[in-house]
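Question (not urgent): is this output format expected?
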Amino acid sequence: MQQREEKQLEASIESLISRVAQLKNSLHSFIFKLENEYDRMAWPSVLDNFALLSGQLNTINKLLRNEKTPSFRNQVIIPLLLSPDRDEELAKLTEQRVPVFSHEIVPDHLRTKPDPEVEEQEKQLSAEAARIGPDVAQKQIQTLNKLCSNLLEKLTNPRDDRETESAALRQNKPSFNPADTTALVAAVGFGKGLAKCRPPGPVAPGQPGQGPMMPGGPTLQQVTIAGASGPQANLGAPGPPQQPGQPGKMPSNIKTNIKSASMQHPYR
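Got this back:
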C-alpha cells in the first residue's frame, strides 16, 4: 500500500513538472517577443499568448484537483544537508537559479506561508473589510467602477478628447485687442486721433484743400507772391546762372522793373 502511494506520488510529480515546464517555455517565448518583437506584435497575437498561458494554468489546477493526485499539502520537505558551498547538481536542476542550498536560501524556498509582514497586512485588510458595511461597500464599488469606466473611455478615445480640448481653447482664447480695433476703426472712419498737418510747400491757387497753413509751412504772403502775375512775379523768378569767377550782375528784367517803378513814382 505504501509503495503504491509512493509510485502514485512520483507519477503525479512528474506530470506536474512537465506541465510546469510547458508553462515556463510559453512564458519565456512570450517575454522574448515582448522584449525583441514588440514593434511587430499585434494585439490579437498578444491575446493569443495570454490565452495559451491561461489554458496551461487551468490544466495545472485541474491536475492538482484530480482525485488520483495525492494531496501535496500532506507532504513535508525536510532539508537533510545545508552547505554554504556551491552545488553544481542543484544549479543544473534549477537552471543556475539556486546554486547554493544554505541557511539563507532555505527559509525562502521552503516557505509554506507568506512573510510575517505580508500576513500582518492581510490581517489589517481583512479587519477593515469586516468593519465596512454592505451598503458602504456597494457605494465604493460603484464609485470605483465609474472611475474605471471614465479612464477606459479616455484611453480608448484620446485623439477625440485632445481635438475637443484644443478646439475649446481656440474658441475661448481671444486673438485680438478690442481697444485697438475700436481705435483703428475710429481713425479710418472719422479721423480720430490723426494730426491735422499739411506737407510743406506752396499751394497753387484754385487747388482744393487750400486753407490756413500749419506752422512750418509757407506763409500766406509767400503763397501770394509765388502765384502773382505781372512785374512782381519777375522778382521771384530766378535769373540766369552766374559764371564762376565773375562779380554778381543785376539781371536785366530787374533793372527794367526798377526803372519803370521810378518813373511811376517821381517823388522817390
